[in-house]
Amino acid sequence: MGAAIRKTGRPMLLYICSWGNERPWEWAQGTAQLWRTDADVSWEKNHVQWTRVVQNFQSNARHAVFSAPNSWNDPDMLEVGVPGLTPLEARSHFSMWAISAAPLWAGADLTTMDAETRATYTNPEVIAVDQDPLGAGPAIAREEVDGLQAWDKQLGTVGGGNHAVLLLNLTSAPATVGVHWNDLALLPGAKVRDLWAYRDLGAFKDGYSAMIPAHVPCC
Fold first, then answer.
1. Which class is 139-212 in CATH?
2. 30, HSE (Cβ side, Cα atoms, 13 Å)
3. Residue 171 and residue 24: Cα distance in Å, rounded?
4. Whole-prediction pTM
5. Spans of all domains in the chain
6. Where are the alpha helices (DSSP H) in the chain?
7. How far apart are alpha carbons 157 and 196 in whole angstroms?
């Protein structure tokens, strides 16, 4: 199929889905442009479980080294707007997929989504992280306490000094989550921008931390 598509001379995507069973990230580069890395996020019609979202994100991240332009790991379609997630969990879900350079395919009913769901799907700054031309996948930068994680994705160029950071609270209670600049090989005084608030937060000497409600991303 890949050879037939190339022979047409037309721009098309070949997507491989064996739910990760055949480890396509190891052999499909140059034949297909993207592939599933795990089972379906949602096993029920019109319902999704938060634990399945987290499981697919973490499973997909294990193959981040294979992420590059025309070489995309897909943890399955987005379930933002599908019953089962709170609005804050849905935003966390979108942030996970964006920092993963994953395809942003909406799995919700587009005709009935509310304003908050639409705002999540259309945040241009978070989408820009997903579509960064470097195509880097995510790496966990810090996890001092189980479930309180800082994920990192380089932007633009390797070592260029621009990073997307996801502060993720996977616990059931609010907690402070942070990252040190030396975790990211950055010098003191790095500047921070909150992509969900569309707001520059200023420069911070050694790192950045914030109180994150349960399942809510920051920055």
1. mainly beta
2. 2
3. 32
4. 0.94
5. 2-130, 139-212
6. 2-8, 50-61, 87-99, 115-121, 124-130
7. 23
